[in-house]
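Notes to self after the call with IL:
- keep both proteins in one doc
- input above output, always
- annotate only the second one for now

Protein 1:
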Amino acid sequence: MSDVQHTDRRPGPRFSRTGRLIVVAVLAVLVVLAVVLVPRLLRERANEETLTVPEGRRAAQIYAAADKALHLPGGSTAKAAKKAHLPLPAEAKGNPEGYLFPATYPIRSDTTPASLLSYMVKTGNQRLAEDHITSYRTVVIASIVQAEADRPADMGKVARVINNRLARHMPLQMDSTINYALGRSTLRTSHADTRTESPYNTYRYEGLPPTPIDNPGADALKAAGAPPAGDWLYFVTVKPGDTRFTADYQEHLKNVREFNDRQKNGGGA
């Protein structure tokens, strides 16, 4: 055995001059791309437009807002809605009312009315699935709840009133459905209004209207899907934050008189 120690002198990996030049060139290209593209991406992100759909908006209102956001002539989105193949339940018969979920949606250069509406409906279907809501009937009820409830805390009770009246074959007598039929929003409903010839007139016709009357948000959908127990048959919002529910018709009439008196006095507290 030799006492001499041998040192491994095998050369390590080395870059040739050509290889080093290639690496430098690639790095230079990456730096140039970063300088050019990053500011552009940041500008595009900053300038990215969005469309916010508030809770309770009707389809017609959403169509008009979409036209503005997409910089299209009025009526463009409404026309697209009639032709678009949206993932709606059969009962909807192609009408997306109730399924254009309230949220904020991005508007990009390639966004079209059809793609925007499809995004809204898919978002709505996802939320419905999360809340285990599969019934078109529930969405119709949720739309009425959205329009009638003064605040989220009252939504469950409003949904229960609707269910109780339907179970008793009582007309719903909801002002919100007449407003939908007449294309308006008001707190005042006249006797002439209640004689309106429309399937959305729930004073004249028993049962639910044929479609949702707006696009309800998460709170209204949850309330309609699982309303609390109660025997309420009537309600009226006497003043903001003061909605009174009762099963007694005479008590309801008293509350209605108080509401009417406040309206005559300018709606003051």
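Protein 2 (the one to annotate):
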Amino acid sequence: MAIRVLLVDDQPLLRTGFRMILEAEQDIAVVGEAGDGVQALDQVRALQPDVVLMDIRMPRMDGVEATRQITGPERNGPAKVLVLTTFDLDEYVVEALRAGASGFLLKDAPAHELVQAIRVVADGEAMLAPSITRRLLDKYATHLPSGDEPVPDTLHTLTDREVEVLKLVARGLSNAEIAADLFVSETTVKTHVGHVLTKLGLRDRVQAAVYAYESGLVRPGAQ
């Protein structure tokens, strides 16, 4: 089954370029396009895409609000959102991740990175490179807790090993890297990550990383 993709951007030329790249892949099918967030919501309901390639800054409804409605509790379908941004530290990226986006990618990223990002997100993983994760969260360090605040009650539901895993997720490590760091199998790491997401009521690794910083479990700039 091909990965069904909806392109959302207010610039038709960019949508055309993305379509050309993606339609060259046998396992990806572009099922529709939208020029703003309002159209995107209509298209998601009508077309049921697997992945929405979402621009941030658009008229009528921006990508952050559209993402929130697509991935929120009232969501109608399996769509995951991959945010596109012109700047790698766009001020709206953090809000998009909090809203439920599964990751973000630069608009000028090489074609193979765009294709790989869509495959990763469609597979249920987060598309957020470790280096970008750290730079992004460090950028917004002034808006995040210092680490001196009380730890949220929900964090106490985690085991010591689950806390370790959450910290490594927040640093942007993949399951394989976490497994190597903790000397356990990758399957064990996947199990721990699943428990963390379930216990904290989070939908993916991106939200887990944001939670770790917002709760003060991990301090911006810490290794």
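Annotation: The chain has two domains: 3-138, 153-215. The radius of gyration is 17 Å.
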